[in-house]
Specification:
The protein is mainly alpha-helical. The chain is 76% helix and 0% strand. It has helices at 13-26, 32-35, 39-46, 50-78, 80-98, 101-109, 114-147, 152-181, 184-206, 242-245, 249-270, 272-279, 283-292, 294-308, 313-333, 337-366, 371-400, 404-422, 432-437. The chain is globular.
Length: 438
C-alpha cells in the first residue's frame, strides 16, 4: 500500500535511493552539524558553561549510542518502513521538547539551576541523537544497501551528494535560519513540526525494506551481478551474524576509521564558534570554508563510489584516513591560504567518502540477513565516539589552553589507521575456497 513497486516503469531501487537520501536530510537536526549553531544559544538560555554543555552532550549521545543495537534487531524484524515512521515521530517530538528545556527548567524552579538544566538537556540530546543520528541513519543506509549489489557504490554516491551538500552547509544555513526566524527556539520548533508531519508521511509512502518483498531483485536484474561472480571481493559466501562480524579485524579497523571522522567532525561542528576565535578567523568565513568542502566532496563521492564497485574497499578507506590527517593539518595552518587549501582538500575527501563507505562496507563484507543489527553496532560506535569528540577537545582546551593538541593527537590516530586499513581484507575471502569446493 498504496502502490506496488513492481508495477512501476522503472526499478524502484532508485526511488529507495531518493527516500534514503531524504531520510538522511530529515536526520540533520539530530546530527552534530544540526546542533553546533545552537550551542551558544543553549549556554545562554540554560546558564551553563561550554564544558557542562559538552558533558551533557556526551552523556546523552553515549546513552543513545548504547541503545542502538536493540533498534538494529527491530529493523531486521519489522523492516525499514515501520522503523522510518517511528524515527520521524520520535525525532519530531524530541525537537519540540528540546526547544522548551529552558522554559521547563524555569517552570519547575522559577530560576536557573545547573542541577536541573543538566538532566533536562541530557534527555534532549539523548532523544534527538538516538532518533536523528542513530535510527534515521541506520534505516536509510541499510535500506539502500539491501536494494543494490553491483550498483551499491554508485547508488551510495548519488545518495551521498545531496547529504554532503546539506551537512557541510548546515552550520552556515542554520546560522542564517536562526537569524531569520528570530531565535534558536523558533528554528527548532519549525524543524520539529516539519519532521513530525511531513517525514512521517514520506517514510510510510516511499520506504520499502528490500526488493524481494516487492517481487523484484537487487539492481533490477539478476544478470547484473554475473560479471563479478568469480571475484571473491564481491561474492557473499557467508551471511555473518552480528556476533561473528564483531570477531573480525575488518569490522573494527574500518568502523573505527569512520569513527575518527565523526570524532573530529563532531568536535569541529560543536566548537565551531570557539575554534574560529582561537585561530582569529571570522565565524561566517569559517562556516563558508566548511561549506566550500562540497566542491571536493561531490567529485570524491563519485570517485569512491566507482572505486567500491571495482576494487577492494581498503583502497577507499585509505582515501578517507589520509583525508582526515590532511584536513586537520590544514586547520592547524588556518587562516593562511595553504591552510584553507589543505582543509578543503582533506576534509572534502574524507567527508566525500564517508557516506559511501558506511553504506557499502557492511552488506559486502557480512551479507544482508543481519544487516540491521550489524549496522546498528557500527552506528553505536560512531555515536559514542562522536560524543567523546567535543569533550576531548574541550578537555585539551581546559588543560593546555588550546585545541591544537587535540588535533595533533587525532592526526596521529588517522595515520595509525591508514596503515591498519592497508593490511585489512574482506572476511568473505576466508570462505571463498570452501564455497567453491562445496
Amino acid at each position: 500500500m498504496p502502490f506496488r513497486p513492481a508495477s512501476l516503469p522503472f526499478f524502484y531501487g532508485w526511488a529507495i535511493v531518493a527516500a534514503g537520501t531524504g531520510a538522511m536530510l530529515f536526520s540533520l537536526p539530530g546530527q552534530t552539524a544540526g546542533i553546533g549553531p545552537f550551542k551558544e544559544h543553549m549556554m545562554a538560555a540554560l546558564h551553563v558553561s561550554s564544558m557542562q554543555l559538552s558533558i551533557a552532550y556526551m552523556i546523552g549521545t553515549i546513552v543513545s549510542g548504547l541503545s542502538l543495537p536493540s533498534i538494529g534487531g527491530v529493523f531486521d524484524r519489522i523492516g525499514a518502513r515501520k522503523v522510518g515512521v517511528m524515527a520521524s515521530i520520535g525525532l519530531g517530538l524530541s525537537l519540540l521538547y528540546i526547544s522548551q528545556v529552558d522554559r521547563i527548567m524555569f517552570g519547575i524552579l522559577g530560576r536557573s539551576s545547573v542541577w536541573l538544566a543538566m538532566p533536562l538537556i541530557i534527555l534532549g540530546f539523548f532523544a534527538i541523537r538516538f532518533w536523528g543520528q542513530g535510527v534515521f541513519s541506520i534505516v536509510s543506509r541499510a535500506m539502500i544497501g539491501k536494494w543494490f549489489d553491483r550498483k551499491r557504490g554508485i547508488a551510495s554516491a548519488i545518495s551521498g551528494m545531496p547529504v554532503a551538500i546539506a551537512f557541510t552547509s548546515a552550520l552556515y544555513i542554520l546560522y542564517k535560519i536562526i537569524e531569520t526566524m528570530g531565535g534558536w527556539r523558533q528554528a527548532w520548533i519549525g524543524m520539529g513540526l516539519f519532521v513530525l508531519f511531513f517525514s512521517t508521511v514520506f517514510c510510510w509512502l516511499i520506504f520499502r525494506d528490500n526488493p524481494e518483498e516487492c517481487g523484484l531483485v537487487m539492481d533490477g536484474s539478476a544478470d547484473l551481478g554475473l560479471a563479478k561472480a568469480k571475484n571473491d571481493e564481491f561474492v557473499i559466501n557467508r551471511e555473518f551474524t552480528a556476533r561473528e562480524a564483531l570477531r573480525t579485524m575488518a569490522f573494527w579497523v574500518f568502523s573505527l576509521t569512520i569513527c575518527i571522522n565523526g570524532f573530529v567532525g563532531t568536535a569541529i561542528g560543536f566548537h565551531a564558534q570557539s575554534l574560529t576565535q582561537e585561530i582569529g578567523m571570522d565565524q561566517e568565513a569559517f562556516y563558508l570554508l566548511l561549506a566550500s568542502t562540497i566542491f571536493i566532496n561531490i567529485p570524491v563521492s563519485f570517485i569512491v563510489g566507482w572505486m567500491t564497485s571495482r576494487f577492494r574497499l581498503k583502497y577507499a578507506y585509505l582515501v578517507t584516513a589520509f583525508g582526515m590527517a590532511l584536513g586537520m593539518v590544514g586547520y592547524l595552518l588556518l587562516p593562511s591560504e595553504l591552510g584553507r587549501i589543505l582543509f578543503l582538500l582533506g576534509f572534502g575527501a574524507t567527508w566525500g567518502s564517508f557516506g559511501t563507505l558506511v553504506t557499502v562496507t557492511w552488506p559486502r563484507y557480512y551479507g544482508r540477513r543481519h544487516l540491521g543489527k550489524i549496522s546498528s553496532w557500527v552506528m553505536m560506535l560512531m555515536v559514542v565516539t562522536s560524543a567523546l569528540g567535543p569533550v576531548f577537545f574541550d578537555f585539551c582546551k581546559l588543560l593546555m589552553g588550546s585545541y591544537r593538541p587535540a588535533f595533533f593527537i587525532s592526526i596521529g590516530l588517522s595515520v595509525i589507521f591508514f596503515f591498519l586499513c592497508f593490511k585489512t581484507e574482506n572476511p568473505q575471502r576466508k570462505y571463498a575456497k570452501a564455497a567453491a569446493e562445496s
